[in-house]
Give the backbone structure.
Amino acid sequence: MVKFSIIIPTFNSKLTIRRCVDSVVGQSYEDFELLLMDGASQDDTVAIVRSYHDKRIRVFSEPDKGIYDAMNKGIDESTGDWLLFLGSDDYLYAKDVLLNVAPYLLNEFDVVYGEVESNLPEFHKGKWCLELIEVNRCHQAIFYNRRFFGHAFRYNLGYPILADFDINLRWFLNKRYKHRYIPVIISHYSTGGISSFSKDEAFLKEVGLNKLRYNYRVLTPLYKKRAARQYVIANPDKVILNFFLSLYADMMSLIQKIMSPNQK
């Protein structure tokens, strides 16, 4: 049997946290811990969670540097074999989610991901592929083997809104990490959070180059070309690097035409 660590970052979440916690403590699969990583809420969030008196729930409340700092702290405090991150306004889709997912969590995999339910139909994407690489996968449907994070690998706090996208690109593009898709709805994802209406400028500036850094062998010449040009467009001030990336993009374009002459 595997042990789950369900990590929930919170801040002034009294209106939604009970529904989220209920969805976890009501699971038919009982081998889990719930880590509430609270950013020193000034409302009743912490009191609500402590009122459950469930030994599987651990509450940490102190100032943090945002959601990904809280998630990093949760990783450090977790003891489970597989980690899942939920927002305080999200909740597990059904009472048998953990029971149904557990058989898929073989130790040979670093990441196992499924689906989320939301009021936006585009979140039902099926297996992630290069054609969908520009759209993030919801971390509310992703289980991470704890060895994936290890002792030092954490969310990049330099990306305050899309650090989870950065993490997902790392495991998807790097052949070092084994991942599998399962056609299971894991959670209900609540839209309208900060990532729905704000841009992560730091992430957007670096994502093109990061795609090449994270193991470009996964990318075809077409996507290598796109990644290089994506960085050039986002960073017009990087004159020298852009010169070489532009040459690289032209080379990839030529290789692409040779390999797939009909592909644009």
